[in-house]
Sequence to fold (143 residues):
Amino acid sequence: MKPFECIFHPKKGVGPINFGQSFTAIKNIRGFKLKRFDPDPDTPPTYDNDPLDLTVYQDEDGKVRSISCDEYLYVDGENIIGMQINDALRLLGNPQYELEKDFELWEGEVQDIYNIEALGMSLWTTSDGEILSASLDDGDYED
Fold:
């Protein structure tokens, strides 16, 4: 999988990776390698693809639950990671969102989160609106 293939499909997936897809199917995607890491032994495994800076989260059934993109996520041919939030929202069709201001991550690092429920998307930004990452899911999972 190449960076330009990281195309956002609302509530469906990213590129050839679909929510609800088995990890066996993902491992068969040509040129796409995942490295397993388990940040919390009490949760299902998580997988990273370093060249794309993409993380795939597994559910209890061994299927794709959500995807996090930290380097590439294309909408209408444009990479929204690094874009200003207002430009990305326009590109996404000006969807309604819920804003979580000053969300503290760790060691005092703070980001704003734009939750766009209709698209199954959360955009994490700096205080000046630059998109740092996107968290994506199909919207059918309970927290």
